Amino acid sequence: MTAALGRAPAVTVTGPATLTSSYPVSDLAAASVATAADALLDLLAALGWPVPPAQVSRPLADAWFGLAVTGVGWSPSPAWDVVAGDYLGTDGWVRLHTNAAHHRRAALRVLGVEADRAAVVAAVAGWPVEELQEAVVAAGGCAAALRAPAEWAAHPQGRAVAAEPLVAVTTTPAAPVSAGWTPSPARPLAGLRVLDLTRVLAGPAATRLLAGLGAAVLRIDPPWWSEPALEPEMTLGKRAARLDARTPDGLARLRELLAGADVLVHGYRGGALAGLGLAPADRDALRPGLVDVSLTAWGATGPWAGRRGFDSLVQMASGIAAVGAGGRPSPLPVQALDHATGYLMAATVLGGLARRVRTGEGTRAVLSLARTAAELERVRGLYRAPVSGRPALPDRPLGTFWGPARVLEPPLAVDGVEIGWDVAPAPLGSAEPAW
Fold first, then answer.
1. Could you tell me if residue 112 is left (phi over 0), alpha (psi between -120 and 50 degrees) or otherwise beta?
2. Is the distance from CB of 177 to CB of 294 less than 8 angstroms?
């Protein structure tokens, strides 16, 4: 696992595993965080500074794969809506992902019922699960049938993903390093502008770490998007604004923001940015030397490359949720594909910045939840850190829009580097879309 995910000997992992699963989830957590730590060390070296030792706390890494922000006297909204979940069809299990209102409407329209759990159970019971999956997807919703790992390995999309690299990186033409980025050994990303066009959960986890290293992260959402259950977690350290890029004014503003960015992190489905006139070549022209890191759910190639997807759906389709299930879906104890991919995205950004410092070149990189799932499947059964009880974890006070909170100490520590968040969590749309 550590070799596959790129952990270097300079990073030390300490502490016991705390996540019980049929898969080595704690190893995935520690390795992905350590990969980001190692990329940070490489950036420090590129900047000409001594490379200090780095440590990853396995219990803290496990905890950050769950929830890192805890309200004091308040709690966020429930993580799942009333319809989202696993349902038994005529020939197996299917998962409906309905947290977004338009995804919920699509699923209910296909099933011909209202948003009532019992009604959905009864309706799904009459459907073959593959047929329902495709009907919901065709209607603009999100669903995935449960498969065994071997079935996914034989599936056209499973085969396509298996042939992709874990992180697909290419370089783009060189340009001067931004004068606004004023790194220091203590805050290596100070002044760096990160434009965040991502949603739950991998991309926001990546930009949260970048914010913790000093980056100025501006998250942009469309007017209709909402994820209230995750706002305290995923706006930590960021300013969050809204604009509608489908309007001339909104698109003009987005182009201005991109032209002023050092890093772009995005998770739109293939072709979405191109449809706005922001294909890769357009982005290169707007911001030469950009570090451009993107995320897909199902991979960059194959018949599902443009399909909507989320961690829980990838676990179902790839067979992860079928292992140790006893006939029922048995997901990982945390959204591990999201979080691990998020730390790999952050590592890719840091690596791209090191390249810019050394050569001036930009970076374009693509990662996917499905490829991270394939990596986890590849190492299943090879080894696993012993699991013990979760120790008491250090945290620090945090002010938020909703009230006082506690945030866990970061899962990585690098001597001399201050990892912390200067911007308090706040609702989406609480800031202006401007640097």
1. left
2. no
Q: Give Rg (Cα) of the chain.
A: 21
Q: Which residues contact 318 (CB under 8 A, 6 or more apart)?
A: 147, 149, 152, 158, 370, 373, 374, 377
pTM: 0.96
Give the dihedral of Cα atoms 227, 84, 207, 358; nearest 10 deg: -150
Q: For 218-234, give the DSSP string.
A: EEEE-TT---TTTHHHH
298-322 pLDDT, tens digit each: 999 999 999 999 999 999 999 999 9
* C-alpha span between 291 and 400 (Å, rounded): 30
- Burial, 283: exposed, middle or buried (Cβ in 10 Å; 0-12, 13-18, 19+)? buried
Q: What angle do the packed helices 101-111 and 129-138 form, to 10 degrees?
A: 130
Nearest 5 degrees, angle CA 113-CA 116-CA 223? 85
d(CA 34, CA 86): 33
Query: How is the chain split among helix, strand and coil, in percent rounded to 5?
Result: 35, 20, 45
| pLDDT interval class at 384 (50, 70, 90) | confident
pLDDT digits (tens, 9 = 90+) for 117-126: 999 999 999 9
Identify which of 338, 387, 369, 390 has the alpha carbon closest to the alpha carbon of residue 60.
390
- How confident is the model at residue 389, as a pLDDT? 83
Q: Is 239 helix (H, G, I), strand (E, B) or coil?
A: strand
Helix intervals (H) in 195-335: 202-212, 231-234, 248-259, 272-275, 280-286, 311-318
H or E segment and range at residue 387: none
Residue 82 is predicted with a pLDDT of 93
The first and second tokens of residue 85, run together, are 């979940």
Q: How many CA atoms lie within 13 A of 258 on its CB side?
A: 27
Going from the C-alpha of 292 to that of each of 141, 147, 198, the distances in angstroms are: 28, 33, 13
Buried b (16+ CB within 10 A) or exposed e, 148-180: ebeebbebebbebbbebebbbeeebeeeeebee
